[in-house]
Amino acid sequence: MLQPSPVVLAPYDPKWPHLAAKLSHDLRVLGSCLVTVHHIGSTSVPGLVAKPTIDLIPVVNDLAVLDKEREHVETLGYKWHGEYGISGRRFCTLSDEGGKRIAHLHFFNNDSPHVLRHLALRDYLRAHPDIASSYDVEKRRARDLHPNDSHAYTDEKSMWIRKTETQAIAWFGQQKNKDTPC
C-alpha cells in the first residue's frame, strides 16, 4: 500500500489540462490496446481547488492485453500497483525526481462502470458551479481534519462524493438522452 502523504490543496491551474494532454499523448505507446484517455478528478474541473496531481482514465480494450504491455507504462516512469483495491482497475503512479506525485493512471476496460461514474462526476461538477463550490468546501474541511494523511482525507470526503456521484450519474444519463435523437 502507498504511504499516506500530507494533503496539499492548490488553486486551479490552467496548465493542468495541458499536462493531462501531454501525459495522455505519451500513453500512445500502448498502441491499439488504448481506446482513449480521459482527464478526471479535481484538476479537470476549472476553478476547483485540487491536490496538484493529474488523474487520468486510460480506457483499454482488454486489461489482459494491457498487463502484457505493462513494461511500456513503466518505461514512461510510472509505478505499477495492479488493481490497488478496485477490481478491474490497473493503478499506476508517476512522481518527479523529488518524490512529488505528478499523476495517477486508473486503467479500466471500455465497458467498466467506473469510467461512467468518473466522467459523470467530472461533467456534473463542470456544469454545476454551485456543486463544485460545495465540493471545494468539503475538500478543505477534510484536509483540515487530516492535513498529514491523504488516505484519511480521501475517506473523509467519500460520503460527499458517493452522494454527489449518484446525482451526477442520473444527470449524466439525462444529458445523454437529450443528445440522442428520437
Structural features, described:
The chain has helices spanning 16-26, 63-68, 70-75, 113-127, 129-145, 150-179, and strands spanning 34-40, 54-60, 79-80, 89-95, 101-109. The protein is an alpha+beta fold and 182 residues long. Strands 1-2-5-4-3 form a five-stranded mixed β-sheet, sandwiched between helices. Strand 3 (79-80) and strand 4 (89-95) form a beta hairpin. Helix 4 packs across helix 6 (150-179) and helix 5 (129-145) packs antiparallel against helix 6 (150-179). The chain is globular. It starts with 15 loop residues before the first helix and ends with a helix.
What's the layout of helices and strands?
Blueprint lengths: L15 H11 L7 E7 L13 E7 L2 H6 L1 H6 L3 E2 L8 E7 L5 E9 L3 H15 L1 H17 L4 H30 L3
Parallel strand pairs: 2-5
Antiparallel strand pairs: 1-2, 3-4, 4-5
Helix pairs in contact: 4-5, 4-6, 5-6
N to C succession of SSEs: HEEHHEEEHHH
Mean pLDDT: 96
| Strand order in the sheet with the most strands | 1-2-5-4-3
Inertia-based shape: globular
- What's the alpha carbon Rg, rounded to whole Å? 16 Å
End-to-end distance, in Å?
49 Å
What profile does the largest beta sheet have?
5 strands, mixed
Low-pLDDT windows of residues: none
Question: In terms of quaternary structure, what is this?
Answer: single chain
SS element count, helices? 6
Structural class: alpha+beta
Number of strands: 5
Strand content: 15-25%
Helical content band:
40-55%
